[in-house]
Amino acid sequence: MDRIDGRQVNQLRPVKITRNYIKHAEGSVLIEMGDTKVICTASVEERVPPFLKGQGRGWVTGEYGMLPRSTEVRKVRDSSKGKVDGRTMEIQRLIGRALRSVVDLEALGEITIFIDCDVIQADGGTRTASITGAYVALVDALTKLLEQGKISRIPLNSFVAAVSVGIKDNTVILDLNYAEDSTCQVDMNIVMTEKGQLVEIQGTGEEKPFTKQEMEQMLAYGEKGIMELIKIQKESLGELANLIGVEGNGSG
Length: 252
Ligand code: UDP
Prior knowledge:
By secondary structure, the chain is an alpha+beta fold.
């Protein structure tokens, strides 16, 4: 099958991660996957939500938004409607879960990291790009805490990244752009750690229910894409990548 942008079926779009993109945040990244561009920041606050008070554990939480002209047709801001829509809620929860899956919250201590993912240009796969970029911003924020002596090690058990896969014209494809996403029959988002462990799978076959065999192929493409994304995360982090998942870094 020929893809709209000439890619192989199991090929990612060009990926670029730019660290230290925002001056004020402890960690900040611009991630570009093809024409999808997301700014991810990680902000540190030395307190935890009420439900965690006094337990000696930290928290990582996510927020997500799309700028009005990130999309082809101007999208009204959530804030001007006075409520967060269901899609946004779903995505921000996913981002929080994805990152928490690799954080040792006990080793973090009573600190909250707020992850903000703001889409400046949307061309499919904004939630998965958010997770991949936010992880790098999180490492930078944790490194600042380590330098300040507020934590004794980087409390991360593994790398984590995410990618979309789908089925279009009966063919499994990796990393869908908007033109593909809006015309595919099956759409799936996969979050996976460096160890190849699945954190989350969001898949829907509403238009064409899919078989377990097709699911296997989507997972295989997803894993290939995620391992490439983790390699890019590591390249962008340089030496810092060596501090992650080292011996004695807890369970996971
Ligand atoms: N999209 C849009 N307006 C919206 C929501 C989505 O234009 O309100 C586009 C955008 O390009 C997005 C794509 O549709 O990346 C796919 O949206 P989906 O909800 O599947 O999330 P994503 O793939 O971005 O995680």
